Amino acid sequence: MGIRKYGEMELIDFQNVSKIYSNGTEALKNVNLHVDNGEFVFIVGSSGAGKSTFLKLITCEERPSEGEIVVGEQKLSQVKRGDVPYLRRKMGMVFQDFRLIQKMTVYENVAFAMHVIGASSRDIRRRVPYILGLVNLQEKADCHPRELSGGEQQRVGLARALINSPRLIIADEPTGNIDPALSFEIVDLLSEINKRGTTILMVTHEHSLVRHFARRVIEIHGGTVVADSCNWEARHDS
Amino acid sequence: MIHNVRYLIREGIRSIWSNRTMSLASIGVLVSCLLLTGAAILFSMNISNAMEAVEGTNSVKIYMDKDLPVLASLKAGEEIKKLDNIKRCQFVSRDDAIENVMEMLGEKDSTLLKDMTGSDNPLPDAFQVSFKDLSKYKDTVAQILKIEGVSSVNDYSDIAAKLTNLHRLVTTVGFWIVLLLSLVSLFIISNTIRVTMFSRRLEISIMKSVGATNWFVRVPFVVEGILIGLISGAVGSLLLRLLYDKLTGTLTSITLFAPLAIGEIQWKITLLFLLAGSLFGALGGAISIGKYLKKEGGEIVDW
Ligand SMILES: Nc1ncnc2c1ncn2[C@@H]1O[C@H](COP(=O)(O)OP(=O)(O)O)[C@@H](O)[C@H]1O
Ligand SMILES: [Mg+2]
Questions:
Q1: Which helix (H) or strand (E) holds B246?
Q2: ipTM, 2 decimals?
Q3: Which CATH code is given to the segment(s) B59-155?
Q4: Which of B205, B296, B302 sits opposite A63 (nearest CB)?
Q5: What is the pTM of this model?
Q6: Domain-wise residue ranges, chain A
């Protein structure tokens, strides 16, 4: 914990952040941490530890009760309601339940994310096939989500998160609904995306994944960061 | 952009169709609201029209005593002509009068009156009189009433007052009913669109998560509302036309009063209905989605 230095590469900065929900639940307590540009971070912890709350604070889905969060150069306390959409365009979100629109094809699901932020049809036609290629789904472009396996559906979700070229991918248990064997495929893809410079924050329960992809691991327990290291496995295996 | 508009309209029609029952209810209430507004407008226009006609003729009808002999009537007529303020005085015999009525009723209904000719004619002799100076109306009428054999003068000022009252009544009652119905339509439209909204929670959620602005999320629902409004406007103006034609058809034969022809103002009413309908629809859509989006930045459901 606290081994990382401040720097120009900094993308996310939590300064004494606490979150108390309106019903009194204290989901995060005095969290301090930094994530640099280009990092790949696993976030682990038991259910109800506050992992999703941590991500929701970054996307402005929730606002902190105390403390300040900086994303890029932007203090989130200064981001007005109306500016939240523009902040989110710099982030790609991936969910456990894929969140694909059943009546749309794979292609349309991905194009939809460009369409709703006002991209031109020309840009959409050019970019969607490229991104589908990146997640190896060119052949499935005209399929509907129900015709795909869980792993393939999540790759569509990933393509949608990538389509608007975000600096940051926020994935909340992206492999939670997928066969463990296929989970590796998803994280492989995320690693690939990370290599191209995109920062990844991924919440997961699967220790085998964390072990296999030796990356920075932040462990949250009861709303506080209890471990933050690149050699998390070393600590836990001993 | 054009592609988007077509897409939005297609989606709007689709969601109206998949939510038929509620959409139909919305359209029904909005049509009723528009119909009542239209009825009130037409009614008040007709009354204004009638008032103008009454005031414009500047003439009164003077009825003689029922069984006064014709010669006595004509003598009274001479006396009327001698009065200062009389411009024109035309004799209308009881036979002419009954014939006029029969003519106006047309072939079929006039058979009812065929026994009322000759000595069985219930109508009195009359004079159609116009004045030089309308402001002396009251005095002149008083003078006429003093002449022997004169039974009554039909008093247009009285009718004018009644029409004015009716006009006021229709306008106020119409206003409140229309206001009430407008609120009901808004309520029903926004609820109809709320159903669509909940069936699209996931879609909205995805839109919010990829950074769609609230404005963008709002548009499809406003479009749906506008479509409901346009359909209601079209149906409403068509119905109003049909009902009005039917009603004035029967009214004319009863009251001998010539109603306004709707033809000249039809396009104005249609335009008004379409405008009002789409305005209400848009408002209904905006209200329902506005409530939903009120939360911080817009919620991403179940995350
Ligand atoms: N919207 C909310 N209102 C109230 N309490 C909440 C809300 N969201 C989460 N919580 C509570 O906050 C705590 C942390 O939740 P969460 O961040 O979802 O945990 P995790 O993702 O690690 O399972 C839990 O106790 C949860 O019940
Ligand atoms: Mg969670």
A1: helix B214-255
A2: 0.87
A3: 3.30.70.3040
A4: B296
A5: 0.74
A6: 102-165
